[in-house]
Amino acid sequence: MLYPIFEFPGVGGGMIIAAIATFHILPCHLATGGFWMAWYLERRGHATHDQELLDYIKRFALLILIFCFVTGSITGAGIWFASTIISPRAISGLIHNYVWGWATEWVFFLIEVVTIYTYYYTFGKVKPKTHMRIGLIYAWSAWISMVIITGILAFMMTPGKWLETGGFFDGFFNPTYWPQLFYRTMMMLAISGMFAALLAGFMKSGPTKTYVIKTAGRWGLISLSLGALFAVWYYFKLPANAHETLSGVPYDQIMFKISLGIGAVMALYFALLLTGREILVKPVLALLMIVVMFVGIGGGESVREYSRRPYLIPGVMYSNQIVAHDLEAKGIKSEVTRYQEEGFLQNNYFVPPEWRRIDEKNYMQAGMLLTKANCVICHTMEVNGRSSLPGLVTEMGSTSASELNDFLETMGEDYNFMPAFSGNPQERRAAAAFIASIVPDNENEPPTAEWVVNGE
Amino acid sequence: MDINTALQALRDPFGVPFFPWVFQLLMVLTFALHIISVNLAVGGIAVSVYEHFKGGEYNRKLSQMLAKVATISLSSAIVLGVAPLLFVQVIYDPFWYVSNSLSAWWAIAFLLFITLGFLAHYVFYLKRHKNPAGYGLFGLSGLVFVLAAGVVMSALSVQALVPGAWLDWYSANGSLVTTGTTLYKFELGRFLHFIVPSFINIGIFMMLYAWYFRPRADIDGAWLDWVGRAGVKVAKIATMIEIVIGFWWLVMIPADLGFLHNHWLWLGSLLGLLLMVGLMKAEKDPERFAVPMALLSFIAVFGMSAAREVLRMVYVGAFKYSIYDYPVNVDWGSTALFLGTFVMGLIVMAYPLIVVFKLGRGRLSES
Fold first, then answer.
1. Were B73 and a residue from A129, B41, B99, B147 both cysteine, which residue would form a disulfide, CB within 3.0 to 4.6 Å?
2. Taking CB atoms and an 8 Å limit, are B100 and A88 in contact across chains?
């Protein structure tokens, strides 16, 4: 049964989740990777008694503390809140399967919060060995929190054996788990290289600065190259459906190409850093590179998001939060089938009582509710909105209610990226009537109430 | 379809992976920890800003110290808030998700408020020396944003408790309200009951602070005396206010829920009174009473968290909803994973905390 619908005007809710998620990746990968870099440099700083390097690390730690830890945890919560209001049943489903996974991750968050503040505030006040040990505890726990969340992210793409057993670990260690984990680990190191370069730009010239620049380049280049290898592995592990979307949907292709192109640009930048030239880390340039990298990550993430369509939990729940298929292991029955047979309106609570039975007066409103419940997660209702429903219908050319009714009847089979329509034949006609009514300058005769209610 | 049936049907089809009471217990415990952090953050910012504007050497010094405490408390509050938010979605999912969907923009606004509050406070903390009056305003707006976030959270929790009103809100004026722009229900008494303890807890924190740094020769003893005395005063006044607010909120709770006869409620009130008596005694020697008062307040917050959950059970019970009959699909492996990690985490966290504790007390040689 569905929750109340929330419509995000203009761009649609999916876009909001994607935007927050992209923004989350920068700080969170830096928060996870940055301390490996800090630890590496701090060891060297103590060994060579390089105070300048130590000062640099302290600034780096403050950057991680404020920028990453704070914005990382807030945007992390942001993805969660955005999912809560846009697809509550999806986040609920994930939580009910993976609550202990998240709770375990949360323990590592606690360790992180304690160690990062300790690290920063005890800088120069405790023995180097103690201090570095605290940094290392942070680095490990941050990485382990990635180890955990990757399992849940990968599960959403390739649930693997879980579909038969429903077991926690069967879903966790799924077919794309290992490639994703290695790939993300490498990305995290590359991102920390990028930020190290950015911060180097604020140091005064000299051998320490050159050293940091070269180190940043080396980390970036090595991890990006390895990351590319793992990405290939990851690609081959993707299910057939994802490959189809990747070669069939133009938007998805563009995003894929963007992320590849940017990967190459980043690799080139890191290679140049190996020369140690200071001009390369001028703040404007470094910031620009961060923006470029941000776009690349955004591209990669939208490919991941797209390849899940039309599912939120593959094989179980459609993107519009309706349970698509039976799942025996958990005793779950398909809702699509039930709604198609018994009706959507009768089986849902969040329907104004006057609309529960379709008649001559309310069919347009009922049609609106049905359309939103089925489609609003991927399409906006505005003519000029992103992935606009009236716009797409106009382009498709089938704009009469009866053509749209036929379209709705078979959309689940005709398009592998769209779910089947949830609703009985009468409800389908009401939705068709509503969709026809929002198509701008529709030249077709509007359907009669008689047709919607009785089918003739 | 009536709302009672709907609540059952809205439950997640996957069921819960362990016995519901375990999630409930964890939720109550972690909520208490979360609210203590929130209290220290709000109280810390508020007193810090107040002392900042008041001026004077001691006041400014206290202000700076509390501002720093507030940065750490805010971070902790966010991280500690994750757990109760997770567990509430496990056992009370229908309530939480409906409330959020109906007021979607406010759920987003909550994040915005937290972010702005955090940033404003950091600016205040790091830049305040430059231009005290100007940057004091950052401190003030930090406080306002953090409180605004609290108001939203409190409202979302209250809305969750009144399922009978949901469909009316959703289908107002014969249409479908999918805009999520309205915040429908807020109880000032309830909100204040969770926020006023900020001053109790930051007051007790100041007492603890004086106690903790006393052994340090390099810290001005007269200042510590002053901090301890100021702390006990703030805590005492706040406790009196809290007791009055408690009664006020109580008369606002619908009488037919019968909460008045609940022994959790009376246990909570008893703890409040004990705290009051203790603080009155502590006025003579704040440092000696610092640790016992902190423990008592800690217990009182746990009592408050438990009473809050009992109240929720009373509210949802009116709709025949009980978490104890939530369908369970026990998953031993992942449960063990969490419990094991949790114990390990406590041990690991002890290490940096011990380092800090010793360092602060001057018992760790500097390198």
1. B41
2. yes
